[in-house]
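Ticket #4471: structure output looks truncated?

Reporter: J.K.
Steps to reproduce: submitted the chain below (370 residues) through the standard prediction queue, then opened the result file.
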Amino acid sequence: MAIDFLKNRQQRLIASILFAIVLAILPWVLSGGFENGKSWLRAVDFALLYIMLALGLNIVVGYAGLLDLGYIAFYAVGAYLYALLNSPHLQAVLPSWLAYPPLLIMLVLAALVAGLFGVLLGSPTLKLRGDYLAIVTLGFGEIVRIFMNNLDRPINITNGPQGINNIAKVHVGGLDLGRPIEWLGITFETVHSYYYLILAFCALIIFVTVRLQQSRIGRAWVAIREDEIAANAMGINTRNIKLLAFAMGASFGGVSGALFASFQGFVSPESFVLMESIMVLCMVVLGGMGHIPGVILGAIIVSITPEILRDVINPLQNAVFGKRVVDPENLRMLIFGLAMIIIMLLRPEGLWPSKRRKAEFHEKDAEATA
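Returned output as attached by the reporter:
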């Protein structure tokens, strides 16, 4: 038994090392192996941001069982906070010590402010469940977007629907990630540098999420999801635990939003519409709620699919019809909607569910078989 355990542990270690090597060389494989390699790498960067978003929403929906349809609001809070402090838009009125803060301080600020907004959302919704909670969170997300769209008068804070541009790129250790970086004879373009930066914070959030899942707080979230009355009877402070779920999930969204604003160099209210919240929620449901590998898989599938369709459908249509008949964006939503219907009918627990959740969904089937 000890030998088998050591063998399995060694296999996991080898697999982890190989996976790390693949992630390290992925930008160069995409850049050299595809004609539009930079656009593919850019899509991978956004996929990493969506993984961070999905893991944050998984805390609220997957662990605590609180349906949140306004999660993209926290993404917007982090993005606009970074944009306002790292662009020329408000530099004339900001104190010198607050202008262009270092990356780590900026991300901590984004996490704290977004977490505060999560508490503000969670406080009045503690007694709401199901559809009522979904409607309130949906309204919260729309309120934040509309505020960002209209805070250009009487004082121009967010620049309204025109958005904020000229957002400064990240500086790490004196290196400007907005310019090509030479290291050991290798040229790192901006999209390469941001890939490694976002990957590092994505790995950090995955680590934190795993630790939370195995902690006392994570078990309390699951207990509330299963039966809030029983959890309260067992001595769990359901109020504080719910607020902590909202705050923790929101802080992940804030960090992701700050990295998005820096990488994109431009933010506007159009980036934070309701459909984005629905897409992140679908990533969690499609992959498997409450299961970290499943959520990561769902985020990758949903975010990478548009690039695959764009590179496959357009040439195929040109070859068959001589022109583009169907817009890949519309086809993406059609395929995505059909996939969600099929998944909900045939595999409601998700593509990669946890063993516990899979057993819960197929409990009746097991009883019938017995």
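Triage note (M.O.): checked the attachment and the full token line is present. The CA atoms of residues 215 and 304 lie 32 Å apart.
Status: closed, working as intended.
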